[in-house]
């Protein structure tokens, strides 16, 4: 396992231990603390989190069902990688959904919602200056959640929710690339301006271009990693 250790589990009276362990491991994968291809050792994970092996084993099984972990016969559990096909598939869907959300927001967003989007830009800029990747990812996620909310389309929000985990994985990798978060802020700002101007077509186009830019960054990152491993 990597040098980045997992923090001991803090019990939550409202959640079963197995769920807390699952969420902790999933967050570690999303943040890159547990890297693609890394073997998940039940005993070591249990010791780091201060729990028994049983909730760790249950969490790993659930992570496998959600595509975060792959089980290799006679070898054990490993953090799943992200393939080029995974990336292109999810970005094809996301580009269309983001464009739809931005266009609907340009039609339907209240002035208060537009102000929320603008405040989100400020928070994003602050976290980028601090260079805290976890906070950058968090504020990026918040911005897009506000955009979906402003679309006033509940079905769209449900569909996006089903893609949330894979989106978070690619978002973390993309925003970790040098200069990407600063570019993303400017792209977000242009989208918000188009929404404030009630320019539906421009908001759609900018949102679509924003996702394609993130896709290109992600694909280049994966291709670079593949070359290093060859």
Structure in words:
This protein has 230 residues and is mainly alpha-helical. The chain contains 10 helices and 3 strands; from the N terminus they run αβααββααααααα. A 3-stranded antiparallel β-sheet has the order 1-3-2. Helix 1 (17-31) crosses helix 3 (53-65) and helix 5 runs antiparallel to helix 9. The two termini are 21 Å apart. The mean pLDDT is 88.
- Which residue ranges are poorly predicted, with pLDDT under 50 across at least 5 consecutive positions? none
Strand order of the largest sheet: 1-3-2
Number of strands: 3
- Integer average pLDDT: 88
Please bin the fraction of helical residues: over 70%
Summarize the structure.
This protein is 73% helix and 4% strand. It is mainly α and 230 residues long.
Primary descriptors:
230 residues, elongated, mainly alpha, three-stranded antiparallel sheet, 73% helix
Provide the fold topology.
Layout: H1 17-31, E1 39-40, H2 42-49, H3 53-65, E2 69-72, E3 76-79, H4 84-108, H5 111-130, H6 133-151, H7 154-162, H8 164-175, H9 180-196, H10 200-229
Antiparallel strand pairs: 1-3, 2-3
């Amino acid at each position: 396992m990597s040098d980045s250790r997992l923090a001991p589990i803090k019990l939550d009276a409202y959640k079963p231990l197995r769920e807390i362990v699952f969420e902790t491991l999933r967050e570690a994968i999303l943040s890159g603390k547990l890297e693609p291809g890394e073997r998940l050792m039940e005993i070591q994970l249990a010791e780091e989190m201060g729990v028994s092996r049983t909730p760790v084993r249950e969490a790993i099984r659930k992570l496998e069902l959600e595509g975060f972990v792959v089980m290799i016969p006679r070898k054990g559990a490993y953090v799943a990688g992200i393939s080029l096909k995974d990336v292109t598939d999810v970005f094809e869907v996301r580009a269309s959904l983001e464009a739809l959300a931005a266009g609907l927001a340009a039609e339907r967003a209240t002035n208060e919602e537009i102000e929320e989007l603008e405040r989100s830009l400020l928070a994003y800029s602050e976290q980028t200056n601090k260079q805290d990747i976890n906070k950058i990812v968090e504020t990026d996620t918040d911005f897009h959640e506000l955009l979906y909310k402003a679309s006033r389309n509940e079905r769209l929000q449900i569909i996006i929710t089903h893609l949330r985990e894979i989106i978070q994985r690619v978002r973390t990798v993309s925003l970790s690339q040098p200069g990407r978060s600063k570019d993303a802020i400017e792209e977000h700002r242009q989208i918000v301006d188009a929404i404030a101007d009630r320019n539906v077509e421009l908001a759609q186009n900018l949102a679509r271009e924003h996702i394609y830019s993130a896709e290109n960054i992600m694909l280049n990152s994966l291709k670079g990693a593949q070359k290093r491993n060859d």
